[in-house]
C-alpha cells in the first residue's frame, strides 16, 4: 500500500536541529497506479516541492524544537476501498495529517472514516487536507471540522467559466459531458442552472455522463458531439478522461470551444494541438502566465526542480496548503489535531503574489481564480508553454477572491 521511501528532504542542517524531534508525518493517499497514476504523481511532485521548501527553512518551529515535515505516499489504486485501507495503514504508521483530492467520491469515503475515527478514538485524531476534491457538498451539507478544502469547489469554478461564456455572443449550442460520479454530476447540474440564468438563449444539445476511468475509446461520444451541432463543450473531466475526450473530438473534426476545469495540462494541450488555439479554455486558482514577476519566478523555480516536460503541472494551491499547515502548527504550538484545526480555521497565507485565507464557517479556502485560453507560446501573454507542447494559456479573466466566494449551507459541529 505504501510506496517507496518517505519524501523527507535531505537538508544541510546542523545535526542537533535535524534530529531534535521526530518528523511530522503527512500521508498522501492517491492513485499512484492505474488510469489516473499521472495525476497522483503530479500531486506528489507539488506537495514534495512544498515540503522541501518548509524543511529548507528549518521545518516547523515548536516549543520542543523544530520538526521536519515528512511526506509518505499511499496508493489508493483509484478505488475507495483501497483508499480506506491506505488510511488505516497511514494511521498505523503514525500519520495524523492526510492529504487527498483526485476524486470527490474517495474524499467523501475518507471523510466518513475520519469523522468516525476521530469520534471514537480521540488519541488518534486525523486531519484531512483536500487539494482537489471539489464536490460542493464537502463544504456544505457534508462539512466537517476535520476537513479543509484548498481548491475552489465545482460551483465556484463553473461561475468563473460562466464569466467567459456569458460574453460569448456567438454561442448558441452547447454540449455538457462529465464523469459519472458526485463531482461530474455537480458540474453538469450547476452548468445547467447557470446557463438558464445567464444565457437562456443557449440551447443544451447534449447532456450526458460516462463511467469514470473506464472509457478507452471516446469516438462514440465524439460522434454524438458532432451530430449535435454543438459549438462548445463544457466538461469537468480530468486526467485521461479529458485527454482521450479532446483527442477523439479533434479526430472527429470538432472545431468548437472546450470550457474545461483541467484543460491546461496532463496531455490535453498536446492532444488537441493547433485546433485548441483560442478554443480550449480552463479555470484554475493560478496559471503560469499570470503576468507578475513573482509568479514567473515561482514557475521557473518549479521547472528547475522538475525539468522534465512531462512533469510540468504546478499547482499554487498545493503550495499554499503546505504553507497553511506549517503556519497552523506553529500558531497552535502543537501537532494535536484539534489545536491545529482551530489554528487552520484562521489560516492566511501568501506565496509568489497569491494570497489565500481559510473561511472558518465551512473550511473552504478563499483565493482568486483565473480563466485562461490556449495559445501558442510566444504570443502576447504566453511566456510559458505547457509540458513542452509549444502551447500555453493566456489569462482572460482574473476573479478576485471576494467575487469568487460563494455562500455555504454548512452547519459546523466543533469538538
TrEMBL record:
<dbReference type="InterPro" id="IPR028082">
    <property type="entry name" value="Peripla_BP_I"/>
</dbReference>
<feature type="domain" description="Leucine-binding protein">
    <location>
        <begin position="23"/>
        <end position="377"/>
    </location>
</feature>
<dbReference type="InterPro" id="IPR028081">
    <property type="entry name" value="Leu-bd"/>
</dbReference>
<comment type="similarity">
    <text>Belongs to the leucine-binding protein family.</text>
</comment>
<feature type="signal peptide">
    <location>
        <begin position="1"/>
        <end position="20"/>
    </location>
</feature>
<dbReference type="InterPro" id="IPR051010">
    <property type="entry name" value="BCAA_transport"/>
</dbReference>
<keyword id="KW-0732">Signal</keyword>
<protein>
    <submittedName>
        <fullName>Branched-chain amino acid transport system substrate-binding protein</fullName>
    </submittedName>
</protein>
<dbReference type="Pfam" id="PF13458">
    <property type="entry name" value="Peripla_BP_6"/>
</dbReference>
Amino acid at each position: 500500500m505504501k510506496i517507496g521511501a518517505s519524501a523527507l528532504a535531505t537538508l544541510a542542517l546542523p545535526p542537533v536541529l535535524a534530529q531534535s524531534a521526530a518528523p511530522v508525518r503527512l500521508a498522501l493517499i492517491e492513485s499512484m497506479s492505474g488510469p489516473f497514476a499521472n495525476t497522483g504523481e503530479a500531486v506528489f511532485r507539488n506537495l514534495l516541492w512544498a515540503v522541501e521548501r518548509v524543511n529548507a527553512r528549518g521545518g516547523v518551529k515548536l516549543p520542543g524544537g523544530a520538526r521536519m515535515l515528512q511526506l509518505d505516499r499511499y496508493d489508493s489504486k483509484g478505488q475507495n476501498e483501497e483508499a480506506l485501507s491506505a488510511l488505516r495503514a497511514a494511521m498505523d504508521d503514525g500519520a495524523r495529517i492526510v492529504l487527498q483530492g483526485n476524486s470527490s467520491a474517495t474524499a467523501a469515503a475518507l471523510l466518513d472514516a475520519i469523522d468516525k475515527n476521530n469520534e471514537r478514538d480521540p488519541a488518534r485524531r486525523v486531519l484531512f487536507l483536500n487539494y482537489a476534491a471539489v464536490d460542493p457538498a464537502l463544504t456544505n451539507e457534508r462539512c466537517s471540522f476535520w476537513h479543509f478544502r484548498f481548491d475552489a469547489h465545482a460551483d465556484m469554478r463553473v461561475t468563473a467559466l460562466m464569466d467567459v461564456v456569458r460574453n460569448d455572443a456567438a454561442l448558441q449550442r452547447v454540449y455538457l459531458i462529465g464523469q459519472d460520479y458526485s463531482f461530474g454530476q455537480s458540474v453538469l447540474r450547476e452548468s445547467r442552472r447557470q446557463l438558464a440564468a445567464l444565457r437562456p438563449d443557449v440551447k443544451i444539445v447534449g447532456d450526458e455522463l460516462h463511467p469514470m476511468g473506464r472509457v478507452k475509446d471516446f469516438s462514440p461520444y465524439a460522434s454524438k458531439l458532432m451530430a449535435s451541432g454543438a459549438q462548445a463543450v463544457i466538461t469537468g473531466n480530468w486526467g485521461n478522461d479529458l485527454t482521450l475526450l479532446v483527442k477523439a473530438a479533434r479526430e472527429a473534426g470538432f472545431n468548437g470551444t472546450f470550457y474545461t476545469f483541467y484543460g491546461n495540462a496532463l496531455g490535453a494541450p498536446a492532444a488537441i494541438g493547433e485546433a485548441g488555439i483560442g478554443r480550449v479554455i480552463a479555470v484554475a486558482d493560478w496559471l503560469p502566465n499570470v503576468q507578475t514577476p513573482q509568479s514567473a519566478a515561482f514557475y521557473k523555480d518549479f521547472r528547475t526542480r522538475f525539468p522534465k516536460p512531462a512533469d510540468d503541472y504546478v499547482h499554487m494551491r498545493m503550495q499554499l496548503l503546505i504553507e497553511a499547515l506549517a503556519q497552523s502548527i506553529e500558531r497552535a504550538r502543537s501537532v494535536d489535531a484539534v489545536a491545529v484545526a482551530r489554528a487552520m480555521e484562521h489560516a492566511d497565507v501568501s506565496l509568489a503574489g497569491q494570497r489565500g485565507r481559510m473561511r472558518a464557517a465551512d473550511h473552504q479556502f478563499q483565493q482568486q481564480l483565473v480563466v485562461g485560453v490556449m495559445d501558442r507560446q510566444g504570443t502576447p501573454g504566453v511566456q510559458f508553454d505547457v509540458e513542452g507542447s509549444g502551447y500555453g494559456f493566456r489569462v482572460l479573466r482574473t476573479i478576485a477572491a471576494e467575487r469568487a466566494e460563494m455562500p455555504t449551507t454548512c452547519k459546523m459541529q466543533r469538538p
